[in-house]
Each structure stands twice: as C-alpha cells, then as structure tokens.
C-alpha cells in the first residue's frame, strides 16, 4: 500500500510539472480574432495575455463605435483563448489522474 501511495505522489508531481510546462507553452499559442468587418484585429495568447490590437483608421473617428468593437472583439478572443487553455490543461490533468472509478467523468 505504501508503494502505491509513493507511486501516486510521484505521478502527482509529474503531472504538476506537465501542467507548468503546458501553461508556459500556452504563452506561445496565439489566437487571432477580428471584428466581422475586419476593422479591428486582436491577438491574444491562450493564457489570455493581449499581444496586439490593430485598429482601422475609420474606427478612430467614432469613439463609441471603437469602444463597442473593442468590447465585442476582446470578449470573442478571450472566449477562444479560454477554450484552448481549459482543453489543454484538462487533457494534462486527466492524463495524470490515477485510475479511480467514477473520476474519469470529471475531465470530459
């Protein structure tokens, strides 16, 4: 029994390291999002760090329109980044979980 516990602790430590590596890798995964008409383009990492914003000159004339574009496009980018982030981290966590009956449904 003690050997099983030590094996599980080793697997947990290995999984923690894989999660850390995955988080670091997600800093390099870029997600591009743009407004429906292409006037605003956003690049964000899968860890939801904003990398760039490109604004068409025409949007600079109307403050309210620009604000609306920023809110909508940033929210879409953050939603995409969150999906990628959660999928990647869940896969690593599931891989590192011991085989406990009933627990597999938590990571689907």
TrEMBL record:
Gene3D superfamilies: Nucleoid-associated protein YbaB-like domain
Intracellular or extracellular location(s): Cytoplasm, Nucleoid
Keyword Cell membrane: no
InterPro entries for the chain: YbaB-like_sf (IPR036894), YbaB/EbfC (IPR004401)
Record carries keyword Signal: no
SUPFAM superfamilies: YbaB-like
Main location: cytoplasm
Coiled-coil boundaries: none
Sorted UniProt keywords: Cytoplasm, DNA-binding
Pfam families, alphabetized: YbaB_DNA_bd (PF02575)
Described purpose of this protein according to its UniProt entry: Binds to DNA and alters its conformation. May be involved in regulation of gene expression, nucleoid organization and DNA protection.
Subunit structure: Homodimer.
Family: Belongs to the YbaB/EbfC family.
Protein name in the entry: Nucleoid-associated protein FGG15_01870
Organism per entry: Flagellimonas algicola
Source organism phylogeny: Bacteria, Pseudomonadati, Bacteroidota, Flavobacteriia, Flavobacteriales
């Amino acid at each position: 029994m003690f050997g099983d516990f030590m094996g599980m602790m080793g697997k947990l430590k290995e999984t923690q390291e894989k999660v850390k590596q995955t988080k670091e890798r997600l800093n390099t995964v870029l997600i591009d999002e743009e407004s429906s008409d292409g006037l605003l383009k956003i690049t964000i990492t899968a860890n939801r760090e904003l990398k760039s914003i490109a604004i068409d000159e025409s949007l600079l004339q109307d403050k309210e329109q620009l604000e609306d574009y920023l809110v909508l496009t940033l929210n879409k980018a953050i939603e995409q980044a969150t999906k990628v982030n959660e999928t990647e981290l869940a896969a690593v966590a599931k891989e590192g979980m011991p085989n406990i009956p009933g627990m597999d449904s938590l990571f689907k």
